[in-house]
Amino acid sequence: MKRYGQIADILVKHGFGIAVDELFPGLPSRVLFKRKEAETDLSAYERIRLAIEELGPTFIKFGQIMSTRRELFPPELIDELHKLQDRVPPLPFPEVRSALDETVPGWEVLFQRIDPVPVAAASISQVHRGVLADGTVVAVKIMRPGIEEVIETDLLILRSLAERLEVVFPDLRVYNPAELVKSFSGQIRKELDFTRDGKNAERIRSNMAELDGVRVPKIYWEASSRRVLTMEFIEGVRIDNVEALRAMGHIPQEIADRGFRAYLKQIMVDGFFHGDPHPGNLLVMGNGDLAFLDFGICMVLRPERRKTFIQLLYGLVETDVDVCLEAFYGLGISIPHEDREYFRDDLYLLLLDYADYEVRQYDFSRMTIELSEILRKYQVRVPGEMMRLLKVIGMVGDIALVLDPTFRFSTKARPYVADLITEQYFSTDAIKTEITAGVSSLRALLRMPEQMNAAFQRVSEGRVRIDVVAGDVQRLQETVDRSTDRLMVGLITSSVVIGSSLLLLAPDAVIPYGNYVAFIGYGAAVCVGIYAVTHALRVARKAPFRRR
Predict the structure, then answer these.
(1) Full-model pTM
(2) Which domain holds residue 529?
(3) Which one, 15, 252, 272, 444, has the greatest CB density within 10 A?
């Protein structure tokens, strides 16, 4: 409840008091509005970003991940979410030392020293320079004390807020906030496990081993744990510092090509890639090697999904609408039937614009933004992995443009993607797979006469039973039964009336007291008729109204 109060205060501070009053109905209004909300010239989206930064690491991470969902949110909000900063003042070393004491027994023997002043600090961890016992210089990433409890509390609150949003603001259900929070919760919990971070680094290090000029730091597991990660210390300059690269004697265009090839291999060949390629995580070393840092966010593409993404990328760079749509369907993206032709037209115009514009005017990053706007226009639900992948490729393309103003994504990617498509359909493995599938189909075809003969044999022997289970058939049977019952009642009533009339016509000598019996029959018939009419009217009122 204390944390709820903190969140409410921060939201009110940034001008969202009305929303808070809806989301926190249990909090007294006098608490929420005890001070007048500060007047400001900032837009609502800017105030959202400032509020998120003040709310702390969980909300900052959530905002950063939501910045990939361009198909859901307005471009102005996405631009603000991209500005989210995850920088906080560092903690004194004695405060973070507890993580070493608790999870790395004997660390004083493993390290000659660890510098008490961190070289970098963020909301979840901070990095110190250290020296192992053998003299190896390392970077020691240490988790901040108590951060796990803070994040778990915030995740509970986020889930509660998402569920409340869907109730209070039904129009927001199209964004599926509860599912967004659920996906985010799984991702941030993975980031809290530095062991996973280290395993991600080792996997990418192994995959990049065959590429010259690409470096991934080595992990020292004997000095690592779930809350401490010790890795090779990498020195270099940020990849977007073009002047510093030239001063070091490097050619920026070569760095751009190297990074682009590394990412295409990670995504399209390995299916396991670095998911946070901002310039701070990509350093250029003194010898020109490109070094990857921070592997907390890595993404996986299964082989069948990878093939579909390659197909989508091929359609985008080759301006082929049909290939793009086929890839969309393969990814489970459903386009409403009534909007399909309009969607095709918008997508075709987008691809034409991308093909016709000159360099620097319109590149892949801009195309992904407009593609996201088209998806949002038609309220198409898109897998989060697709948008994160397109964001990663777009970020890589943006960095390449900083290094090489003549860089054009489609020109660089086309031969690489074409080779992947060729390998996908004409490689030895692909041919073997197709041959195996063909042989299976041929076997099934050859067995068809035998199976048909067996089926006809069962029919001729009367051993075929057909079971039909359908709700409509059941309802039809019930309707027929009711109609039959009513028909029988009508026939019996008619018979009673006719019989009573015959009794009235018969002489008293033939049938004594016939008149009395006839009147009793008429009375019974009238009662049955009144009941039948009343029941029919009651059923008619309960039935749903249908237009003729």
Answers:
(1) 0.68
(2) 471-542
(3) 252
